[in-house]
Amino acid sequence: MEEDYAEGQQILQLAIDRISANPYQPRQSFDQAKLDELARSIVEKGVIQPITIRKKEGEGYELIAGERRLRAAKQAGFNTIPAIVMSVSSPEEMMELSLIENIQRDDLNPIHEAKAYLRLIEECHLTQEEVASRVGRNRATV
Length: 142
Hints:
By secondary structure, this protein is an alpha/beta fold.
């Protein structure tokens, strides 16, 4: 299944084994009980929100956002998962998208959130003001 999703994006049903981990994942630990809950939900209702990936150079795809959904789908025994393919050309852009997506969620622990802000500043060469603007937080929070 493939369909247009948005400008420069498409959504497809993709084999899970073609997706590699995100090297910029800010979440450093995953609660197994919550993954179990999500896996049960996926068995019952399917994956409701697609993961976000990018095409790798050569073959395969690299995860941008949705690692919990990907892990839970694997745990549930799924072989495929719905995925939005984004046109992301640089490692910096991928890191920025990945970190921003995780920062904007309420359940990222404060230490991981602070480390994500620091990575955006140091590795993407953003100012504190630019990070605050991109993640929708005030400068003092960043």
